[in-house]
Structure formats: C-alpha cells, structure tokens
Amino acid sequence: MDSFSGLTGTDFFNVIMVPTQVVIIFFTFYYFVLSMFGLYRKRENKILIPEKSFAVVVAAHNEEQVIGPLVENLFQMDYPRELFDVFVVADNCTDRTALIARRAGAYVHQRFNNVKKGKGYALEWMFNRLFQMERQYDAVIIFDADNLVKENFLIEMNSKLCQGDKIVQCYLDSKNPFDTWVTNTFSIAFWLSNRLLQLSRYNLGLSNVLGGTGMCISTDVLKQMGWGATSLTEDLEFSMKALSHGIKTTWAHDAVVYDEKPLTFAQSWRQRKRWAQGQVDVAGRYLIPLVIKGIRERKIMYIDAAVHLFQPALVMIATFFMLTNLVSAFLPEYAQIFSMVMPWTGWQILSAIQYVYPVAALALDRLPWRSYLGLILYPIFIYSWIPIVFLGFLNRKDKEWSHTKHTRSISYEDVIREKRVSTN
C-alpha cells in the first residue's frame, strides 16, 4: 500500500489519459498509412466475355417513387439479357411498388411479415426462394430501390467472379449530390470511403466491406453459409460473417451504383444512428474473434477488419479525451503525449486530415467542381457522428428498422447529364 501513497491526482489521471492518447495516436497513424494506398490504382486484368449468370435482387418497402426508373435502368445494362433476371421483393408494401415493378418487367415477390421486419429478413426470404427455383444463378446482386446503375456493372462483376472472387462490393456514387448541403456532405463521405478506404484495402489485398447496395455474392457462398444477416447493418454483418469463414470481400472500382442520399439532416441523423446501432452490435459479436483469428493465422486482413469494427469505440474514446483534455489547463504535470511525439497537437493533425483527405479523394476520382463546395459544411457532418455514435451504443439492443423515404425519381440519363454539367 505504501507504494501508492505517494501518487497524486495527476498521476492517477495520467494512468487513464496516457493509454487513451496511445490508442488515438495508433489509430490515427493506422488510417493515415492505410489511406496512402488509395492514391493510386493498380493495374487490373479484366475478363470482358460474359459468362456468369446473375439474379439481380432489389429489396423494396413502399418505394413507388423510385422503383420504376431502377428496374428500367437494370434492363439497360450492357450484358446479355439471357444471363440475368431482375427480382423485386415488395416487402410489407402498402403502395404501388409491386405493380410498378411488375409492369417494368421485374419478377415480383410480395412478402408480408409484421414480426421479422427489415431488409435483412426480406433478403433471406428471397434467397430461400431463389434456391428452390428450377433455374440457378452463379451469383446474386443486391440493390436498393433508390439506386441507379452504370451500364457496365454486370461486366465488371462477371470479371471478378471469373477470376475467383466470391464477394464483391462496387463503387458507391451519389444520385443526388447537389440537392442540399446534406446530400453534398454525405456524398463526400462516400467518395472518401471509396477511394481512401475501400480502394486502399483492395490494393493491399485486405478484405473490403460490403456497403449495403451494389453487392455481388456468389451463390455457392450463400448456400454454404446461409445469409443470416438480419441486423440493422446486414451488409457489415455478412462481410464479417464471411471473413470469419476465411472468405474475403473484394472491390470493383469501375462498377458504379448511384445511391440516393437523404435530403435533410434529420433523415441523415436517423439513417446514421441505425448504422451506428448495427455496427456496435456486429462489433460485439465479431471484433474479438477476428483479432484472435488474425493472431493465430498471422494475417493482417482479420486485424484490419477488427480495426474497422472498433471505429465506434474509437469515436467515444477520442471524445472522452477531447473533453477531459481540458483538465490539462489545471494539471500542468499532465502527460500530453500528442505534444511529445508530434510538433502539432493530435487535434491539429486530425483537423488537417479532415480536409486533406476529402480533397484528395475528390481530385483523384475527378469529381465535379461543385463537389468541393460541400467541404465548407463537411465538418458539421463529421462531428455530428459523435452524438450519433453514443446514441447508437446506448440503443444497440434496439432492432427496430427505420425506413428512409426515397423521393428522387430520376432516370440514369438524368444523373449522367447532371454530372456532365457539373464537371464543365
């Protein structure tokens, strides 16, 4: 006991804060180094001869405003018509979604279940139906009802499957980046992730993360493992489930889906809160097992996946540090490691990265000049993640699905036209 009698309040404070700073520094540099590998695109050998067959599945709940343009767009993809079919799951719909999709040429399957609600359950139900059909497909493609798709999408996925990949995530672009400041900043976040996280992981041979739409999954993988992803973030859940079985997700940078971003901050808040709840839930089940698997097999891709799952915890740790760092004004002996190891403080570096990263992502993918205007309010979007993550943690056991209403009923041609106008 005498060995502790000489410790001051500052000493005890440092016992907590020094490890906290070490954690923040480690993850800051980890993501900095990771992002460097997204500054280039490695050369790819593509197989352009159509071979694989696809079941294109769209999960839709009351999407009469957007389902028509999507189904029409899907049939315009540059791929042999006999090698793919379009299926729409009209899940608990009370509007004209099923009728519109059927008239547009899709095979419509209506599902009604007031207990098992949400996209994950709808997909699992549809996959079981697909497996029982006379015709079997090489892979399943999953889209959201508000999407539009670049015409080469299936060609790109065919190439990946022919080269042995089993799970593929596409580039997630924005259908409405300039509707409001929210859609602009939300789009920047996706563009940043595409380039400096997803492409970086692909270049390093790590496992990518499914993004909820534009996902291609080999049928044999689905039959082997089952879908079973019914959390609020079914995409992340299936990514980690597959990886725990040694099946990694790869990246198709040239396969593009245009996704509708929420128009208002309130809509964005609800959607991201659902994502935060789901990520905390998935992290609780897969983070530690992936760390153990990575150590046992000595493979960094499992550790990297665990790092990705740790993000909500990192946000909470960093927020704790930011708030308690104010105490340093009253404790001059407080060990400020950020100042010891770097000429700038850690927060100045993080602030710089906050702008450098998005600018690099926009420039590298040659996005329209109007995209840069969103950088003005981008910090509001980024820092709003802090309360969202805390709420996601507190409500992690809440499995209630919150539907995002989609209203941007435009054609693929309109999206391309607007992008050309914005570029010029």
Short description:
The chain has helices at 2-5, 9-36, 67-74, 97-103, 119-131, 153-162, 181-204, 219-225, 234-244, 265-297, 300-309, 311-324, 337-341, 346-364, 378-383, 385-394, 412-423; strands at residues 54-60, 84-91, 107-111, 139-144, 148-149, 167-174, 215-218, 249-259. The protein is an alpha/beta fold. It has an eight-stranded mixed β-sheet with strand order 3-2-1-4-7-6-8-5, with helices on both faces.
Descriptive report:
The chain is of the alpha/beta class and 424 residues long. It has a single domain (14-40, 51-397, 405-419), classed as Alpha-Beta Complex (Spore Coat Polysaccharide Biosynthesis Protein SpsA, Chain A). The chain contains 17 helices and 8 strands. It has an 8-stranded mixed β-sheet, sandwiched between helices. The protein is globular.
Note the topology.
Blueprint: H1 2-5, H2 9-36, E1 54-60, H3 67-74, E2 84-91, H4 97-103, E3 107-111, H5 119-131, E4 139-144, E5 148-149, H6 153-162, E6 167-174, H7 181-204, E7 215-218, H8 219-225, H9 234-244, E8 249-259, H10 265-297, H11 300-309, H12 311-324, H13 337-341, H14 346-364, H15 378-383, H16 385-394, H17 412-423
Parallel strand pairs: 1-2, 1-4, 2-3, 6-8
Antiparallel strand pairs: 4-7, 5-8, 6-7
Helix pairs in contact: 2-7, 2-12, 2-14, 7-14, 9-10, 10-11, 10-16, 12-16
